[in-house]
Every structure is written in C-alpha cells, then in structure tokens.
Amino acid sequence: MALWVSALLMAGAVQVAPQADPGVAPARSKLFPIDPTAYLLGRFRADTTTDFVRLPPKITDGRPAYLRTQAARALTKMVTAAQEAGLALTVVSATRSYAAQRQIWNAKFTGARRSMGRNLAEAYPDTSERCLAILQYSSAPGLSRHHWGTDVDFNSTDPVYWQTGRGIAALEWLTGNAQPFGFYMAYTQGREHGYRYEPWHWSYQPIARPLVRLYFDRLISDEALTGFLGASQVRELPWKRWYVEGVHEALK
Ligand SMILES: [Zn+2]
After folding, report:
1. What are the tens digits of pLDDT across the range 222-237?
2. What integer pLDDT is reported at residue 219 of this predicted model?
3. Could you read off the pLDDT of 116-140 as tens digits, one per residue?
4. Which residues pair with 161 in a beta bridge?
5. How far does the centroid of ligand 1 lie from the alpha carbon of residue 3, in Å?
6. Full 3-state SS string of the chain
7. Fewer CB within 10 Å, N side or C side of the chain?
C-alpha cells in the first residue's frame, strides 16, 4: 500500500462502515489486498489474489465466482437465510476483471454484443452518444464496482425479470433483509446521475463505501481510463460524479 494511503487511513480521514454490523466490518489496514490503483481498476486476477475467495457453488449459477473474503462470508449468510425463507437468490456475476469488463464493453461498442436487445453501433453512429447508451447498463473497464470484489448481481440482469412474481418476491426480501448483512442496492431508482435502475446489483457496504471516496478523491485519474474503444469519449464525461458517485446514499 502506498504510504500516503496508509497515512490517510490511519488519520481517520476515511470513515469505514458506520452503518454496518461491526461484526462484519473490515479492519482499515485490510481495505486493499494489493496495490490500491491496480485493485480499484480491476487489474488483477481474483482467483490468485489474496483475500479473494470462491463463492460456494450452492449460492451461484455454477460458474466460478469470487468476492473479498468478508463480503463472501456475509453474502453466504444472507443467501442462505433467503433460501431458508423459500426465496431463490442466485449469484450470476461477482468479481469481474478489467480484461473481462473490456471484453463486454468493446463487444457492445462494436455491436457484436447487444445491449438490452439493441445493436448500439447501428443505433448510435456517433461514438460519444454510443458510449452514453452503453453506460446506461454497462460500466467502462476500470469504472466497475464489480472490480472490487464487493458487488454481485442476483438472478437476472434483465429488468423484465424483476417485474415478474419471482423477481418481485426476491426484491422484496432483499429490500427488507439485506442491510443487516451489509448489502445495499447500488443503483436505486431516483438517482440524479449514473447507470439506470439495477434491482439485481447489490453491494457490500463495509468495504465498498470507503473505496468510493478513495477512488473519487485520490487514486484514479482520467489517464486511468484507457485501452478500450471510446475511452477518450468516456473521459470527456463527468464520469466520476456520474458513474462512481452515482450510487445509493449509504454507499458514498
Ligand atoms: Zn452488476
């Protein structure tokens, strides 16, 4: 860890998890498992990085999924409680690397992968408009909370699912029960900026909250957003304010 980061944390400049169960809050010195900048940008492999663990298959869709150790512990408890209550809660996405996010982003940029059923390369010949369209539901590489090992997607990333009986039941359970486990919906309705409403995306606040501040204030600059299609167009946006800070109040 860079010395100034340690100093910042030691000085108490960063508040860690004031609203979460103190039993699951991490020690301040444990905030970064590796170099802070590489970590925040997702430039590492979760399967070989210290303090990342694989989630138990019974709470995932079967594909290997990784989270920070404390987030994984809290998540497993929460999903087990949901399952005991008769709710189907399944992790369909957890930690994603910069490389994985770049693959998703570039495919949406070229139109090889559809976004909510649409080919955005055809719909938006202007690349700045296309980036804004992708950013309704997908983050740019280096900008994703999924890099941090604190965030998961449940059940389905199709908004229609969350209007069905099963989706509504899952959302009601999460809304009523997730916070004591440390989890908050990141992209709630009624925010001024940022991604669209994502009822499937939940974040482990004790670790993720201090990361937002550090990302915003200190660690990540415009130059970090590079190496993907449309990067210069994304840099022209107020990207930190919209896509990093544009989250639930309890997560910033
Ligand atoms: Zn997500």
Report:
1. 888 999 999 999 999 9
2. 76
3. 899 999 999 999 999 999 999 999 9
4. none
5. 32
6. CCHHHHHHHHCCCCCCCCCCCCCCCCCHHHCCCCCHHHHHCCCCCHHHCCCEEECCHHHECCCCCEEEHHHHHHHHHHHHHHHHCCCCCCEEECCCCHHHHHHHHHHHHHCCCCECCECHHHHCCCHHHHHHHHCCCCCCCCCCHHHHCCEEEECCCCCCHHHCHHHHHHHHHHHHHCHHHCEEECCCCCCCCCCCCCCCEEEEHHHHHHHHHHHHHHHCCHHHCCCCCCHHHHHCCCHHHHHHCCCCHHHC
7. N
Q: What residues does each domain of the chain span?
A: 35-251
Q: How far is the CA of 115 from the centre of ligand 1 (A)?
A: 14
201 CA distance to ligand 1 centroid (A)?
Answer: 5
Spacing, Cα 151 to ligand 1 middle (Å) = 7
| Residue 93 CA to ligand 1 centre (angstroms) | 7
Q: How far is the CA of 173 from the centre of ligand 1 (A)?
A: 18
- Tell me the whole-structure pTM to 2 decimals: 0.87
Query: Residue 28 above 60 pLDDT?
Result: no
Let me know if domain 35-251 sits in CATH 3.20.20.140.
no
What is the band of 213 on the pLDDT scale with cuts at 50, 70, 90?
confident
CA of 200 to the centre of ligand 1 (A): 7
Buried b (16+ CB within 10 A) or exposed e, 193-202: ebbeebbbbb
Type of residue found at 66: Y
